[in-house]
């Protein structure tokens, strides 16, 4: 019966609603993207450039900000941007650029047709982005494709551990969830003393797949293992909103008894990359986006993660051209054995503002997570780097916490950061999630000092040279 509904939803109910009633092209775009994923890498690169060059010409004709900015960088017209190498020399777009030039970033002929969304503002500075209806339909199509790689295809029974705020039409929202064969459990109210409600929901709803913030499913997985609670085993768990580290993946899989998949996206463009059934890196949606990884950050090691630079190939209403979203990622060479021609990321490594550094320029990411995860008695932690030689660490203690845990942490952190690092430990009852349900385990205060963002380093434009951009993915 469950399988029958999924097939009925994908083939009849959703086409009737999405294509027939709403007049959206989501399913037509999904068919297109499902075909494109099997193109060869060279064919996908050609397709990407065709779409990008068309968007560049549109921006020159329609978007005052880009025309003026590119002229200032020495571009006489769109004909000067004849390759990806030329495109990589154009000035970057920052969040502050968007705030300062919001109206001038809108296409003249489409400004009255835009939809808007606001980013979650985990840094305390929400950002509004405009986009077209067509762009919205394409974003949803590419999301459905990526989720289906992990088995979360349209209509499949899904439980979402997600953030929900009071809605103006709660009845309509519940009807929508029911039609999509999904249930949403609000993680904004997740606490240690109500974890059983989430476990019970899994047993009651018996989902085929689960979709969750990383921090939320990790927290539930720890509770399940600590309490010896077994729950219904879904086919897969899709993790989103934060980097998924390998020790967290292992924890989730041990608690739920099914594979965990990594995805990567941001509200500005939605799904950027996701794992296929091979789970050997994340496929970048290069037929929908142009994704660059910047050159090595000043002061960082050559093999450190690099800042993500995004271009949405289909947002003609308020184009984001070479937009730096603040994330860090690492490229993966070679092709996936699944046969898809889409390029790969080896990992998504967090945000540049959360990149902790050693005095030698090395990035400390997963090691810190792994160290604390393997120290008994620690439920949550947050490390703040105010100076290159100091870390302030806040810990939430579990019932089995012992003072010797601090010695283990001190030793491990000094091994990573060097003997000169000053460590200041604090204890707290809890560490608050961001407004979007994320746990910031690391916060760098060096972003405007020793850790100079690529945004600042490359903001000058064409004269800097393409060698400073490492790779398109």
Task: Describe this entry's structure for a reader.
- By secondary structure, this protein is of the alpha/beta class.
- It is 34% helix and 23% strand.
- The chain is built from 14 helices and 20 strands.
- It has helices at residues 2-21, 26-36, 41-62, 64-72, 84-87, 95-100, 133-149, 170-179, 195-205, 214-227, 246-256, 366-373, 404-417, 454-457; strands at residues 115-118, 128-131, 158-162, 182-186, 209-213, 236-240, 260-266, 270-275, 282-284, 289-294, 306-312, 323-332, 344-351, 356-357, 363-364, 378-387, 390-397, 422-427, 442-444, 469-472.
- The strands form four sheets. The chain has a twelve-stranded mixed sheet with strand order 4-3-5-6-7-8-9-13-12-11-10-20, sandwiched between helices. Strands 18-17-16-19 form a four-stranded mixed sheet, with helices on one face.
- α12 (366-373) runs antiparallel to α13 (404-417).
- The protein is globular and about 65 Å long.
- The two termini are 41 Å apart.
- The model is unreliable at 448-470 (pLDDT under 50).
């Amino acid at each position: 019966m469950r399988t029958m509904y999924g097939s009925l939803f994908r083939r009849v109910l959703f086409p009737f609603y999405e294509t027939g009633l709403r007049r959206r092209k989501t399913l037509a775009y999904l068919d297109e993207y499902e075909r494109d994923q099997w193109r060869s890498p060279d064919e996908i690169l050609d397709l990407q450039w065709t779409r990008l060059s068309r968007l560049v010409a549109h921006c020159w004709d329609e978007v005052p900000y880009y025309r003026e900015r590119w002229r200032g960088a020495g571009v006489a017209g769109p004909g000067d941007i004849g390759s990806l190498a030329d495109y990589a020399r154009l000035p970057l777009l920052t969040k502050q650029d968007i705030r300062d030039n919001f109206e001038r970033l809108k296409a003249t002929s489409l400004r009255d047709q835009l939809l808007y969304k606001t980013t979650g503002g985990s840094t305390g500075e929400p950002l509004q982005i405009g986009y077209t209806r067509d762009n919205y339909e394409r974003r949803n199509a590419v999301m459905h494709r990526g989720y289906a790689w992990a088995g979360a295809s349209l209509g499949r029974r899904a439980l979402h551990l997600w953030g929900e705020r009071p809605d103006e039409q709660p009845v309509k929202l519940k009807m929508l969830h029911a039609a999509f064969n999904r249930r949403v459990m609000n993680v904004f109210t997740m606490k240690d003393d109500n974890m059983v409600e989430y476990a019970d929901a899994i047993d009651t709803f018996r989902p085929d797949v689960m979709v969750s913030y990383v921090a939320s499913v990790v927290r539930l997985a720890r509770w399940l293992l600590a309490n010896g609670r077994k729950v219904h085993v879904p086919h897969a768990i899709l993790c989103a909103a934060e980097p998924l580290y390998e020790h967290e993946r292992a924890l989730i899989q041990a608690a739920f008894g099914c594979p965990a998949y990594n995805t990567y996206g941001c509200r500005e463009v939605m799904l950027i990359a996701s794992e296929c059934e091979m789970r050997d890196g994340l496929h970048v949606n290069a037929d929908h986006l142009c994704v660059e990884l910047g050159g090595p950050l000043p002061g960082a090691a050559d093999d450190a993660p690099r800042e993500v630079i995004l271009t949405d190939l289909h947002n003609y209403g308020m184009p984001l051209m070479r937009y730096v979203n603040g994330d860090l990622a690492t490229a993966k060479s070679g092709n996936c054995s699944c046969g898809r021609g889409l390029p790969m990321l080896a990992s998504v490594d967090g945000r540049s503002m959360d990149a902790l550094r050693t005095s030698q320029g090395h990035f400390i990411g997963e090691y810190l997570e792994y160290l604390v995860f393997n120290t008994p008695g620690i439920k949550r932690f947050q490390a703040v780097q105010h100076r290159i030689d100091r870390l302030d660490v806040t810990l939430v203690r579990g019932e089995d916490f012992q003072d010797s845990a601090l010695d283990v942490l001190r030793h491990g952190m000094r091994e990573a950061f060097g003997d000169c690092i000053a460590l200041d430990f604090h204890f707290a009852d809890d560490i608050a999630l961001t407004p979007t349900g994320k746990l910031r385990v690391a916060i760098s205060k060096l972003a405007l000092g020793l850790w100079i963002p690529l945004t600042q380093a490359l903001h000058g434009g064409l004269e800097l040279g393409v060698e400073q951009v490492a790779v398109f993915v």
